[in-house]
Design goal:
Two copies of one chain form a homodimer. In chain A, strand 5 and strand 6 form a beta hairpin. Chain A has an eleven-stranded mixed beta sheet with strand order 3-2-1-4-11-10-5-6-9-7-8, with helices on both faces. Chain A is α/β, with parallel strands linked by helices. The longest helix of chain A has 18 residues. Chain A is about 45% helix and about 15% strand. Chain A is globular and about 60 Å long. The relative contact order of chain A is 0.17. In chain A, helix 1 runs parallel beside helix 2, helix 1 packs across helix 9 and helix 3 packs parallel to helix 4. The model of chain A has no long low-confidence stretch (mean pLDDT about 95).
């Protein structure tokens, strides 16, 4: 697992903390620590010497004349390249979303038809779990990008949550005809005509409250601006008040998977805690072991074949 | 109080229920029931005959050849005109937001500088109460409209919540420079340069979680699409899990005030319950008795005078 030590508002401290927690929780986990050597060494020193073989360092040092932002972004770029070159199986970053998405799109390649890879988050609901996408990659998306979110989100719910025939809804502000902004008014015919993978079906317009109940959709499609705002609002509410269905077990990790790229890239919020980073690393490891990214790609390819 | 009996997904039944509850809870309340005579009669029959003097009817009947939508919209138009003509002090509608905003803008008039009147909702937070606007009036707003939201929201927090020097934030998806969509990237310099009323100040970018905590802003400005999605999501979470600070007393009504028009217009969600409608009516009566709309207009005019 390649971990971007420089990404996040409180990097490298919380990333060091999170990586250490993840290592201790999962004895099979190996980490490639990408960033300043001294931050990586903190993790190594905290581990039993018998465990040192589980840690590799990929030092990224500030070069002369390079701005701080570029230096930080070179961290996630190096982490993505480590996956592209087979040195790591997946990437975890809490850094700038735009830099991570761009690095992943260039370094790992986008799946056919994917213009802007979306970030898919999972929220607990009264009915289980719900996939919300995009949560920050595609601001000002066009219609084709939103339609691709629907395809990718359906595959995610089928593969990662094991949902048979996922219900896909479009997030808007009222279910009467003509409600919503320009983008939302244009989208329903396009979404209704899509051939979705995994037996998924488009169930029409949904609203903010449907993301809490989970009663009408398993996948909710929106632009990255609205999705990010709603995600951060609901996550904060659940952190304060508990999840909508406490009987449903531990809440999902506060981390999002980048969809539509050829590799496992998990993103935490910039304000993520050490526990969030640890959960994000564990989630990335889980997805890799399940070969989830390849399974999603296969589902979408299979649907493409049928539709042709 | 003019009540639009035809507005809402479950009209007139829930509006009848809500109007009756409001009447029973507040003996000083008089209602002008706008809509089908038989719905109004249900309320009258349910009241003690000694109370019948508190109810007036303004029948709105379907005309031949008029579509159902137009008939429903004529209800809110008639209710707004009753206020414009002095037959009522305020309006409550759970109907189509667009029709209500347009009726109010035309029937009551917009305040100077207000292009699109925003709807301001109040959310409970960990720190008290927070004004979120717009929550459904201005989809695809321009920069000037968003700046007007900031002025109106500041006046609202000062007058209705008694906040001295309200803190006004712009809702976005990350506080680094360059985050957000086109609109959000363009707005900060404009908002920072505004002369806000009531000693309010622009505090910069805020995120979804800040709407839950209430720690950094008293007023959060956004477009009507994002605001509506976040409002419905958080309201549903709080309805399920309780408000962020149970010690803060009863949660605010799930109703929004239309700002920037010359009159008191309160809007409930289309999916409002009878209890929500009753709370909306009580809220409108409270605002009218406090002369809140005039006080907000005065604050903004006073600031205009200073800024000239």
């Amino acid at each position: 697992m390649a971990v971007d030590l420089l990404g996040g508002d409180h990097a490298p401290a919380v990333v060091v903390d999170g990586a250490l927690r993840a290592c201790q929780a999962d004895p099979a986990l190996h980490l490639l620590l990408v960033g300043p050597a001294e931050a990586a060494d903190e993790i190594i020193y905290a581990l039993d010497p018998a465990e040192h073989g589980r840690i590799l360092r990929l030092p990224v040092a500030p070069a002369d004349g390079v701005k701080a932002d570029s230096w930080v972004e070179s961290g996630v770029r190096s982490a993505v390249l480590a996956v592209a070159q087979g040195q790591a199986d997946a990437v975890l970053s809490a850094g700038n979303t735009g830099a991570t998405v761009t690095s992943a799109a260039l370094g790992l390649g986008r799946r056919p038809g994917v213009r802007r890879p979306p970030l898919a988050a999972v929220l607990p609901t009264g009915a289980g779990r719900l996939v919300l996408l995009d949560v920050g990659s595609s601001v000002d998306p066009d219609e084709e990008t939103m339609a691709t979110h629907a395809l990718l989100g359906a595959a995610y719910a089928a593969v990662v949550h094991g949902v048979a025939a996922p219900r896909v809804g479009l997030l808007t502000i009222g279910t009467e005809r003509g409600k919503g902004d320009r983008l939302r008014r244009a989208l329903p015919p396009l979404l209704a005509g899509l051939a979705l993978p995994a037996g998924a079906r488009y169930v029409g317009l949904v609203e903010g409250n449907d993301v809490v109940s989970g009663a009408v959709a398993d996948v909710v499609v929106t632009d990255g601006f609205t999705g990010n705002v709603l995600l951060k609002g609901l996550e904060a509410a659940y952190a304060e008040l508990g999840p909508p269905d406490p009987a449903a077990g531990p809440p999902p990790p506060r981390a999002a998977l980048l969809l539509g790229v050829d590799g496992t890239v998990v993103v935490c919020h910039g304000a993520a805690s050490g526990a969030d980073v640890a959960a994000g690393i564990a989630f990335a490891a889980h997805l890799h072991r399940r070969a989830a990214v390849a399974a999603m790609a296969d589902l979408i390819e299979a649907q493409r074949g049928v539709s042709r």
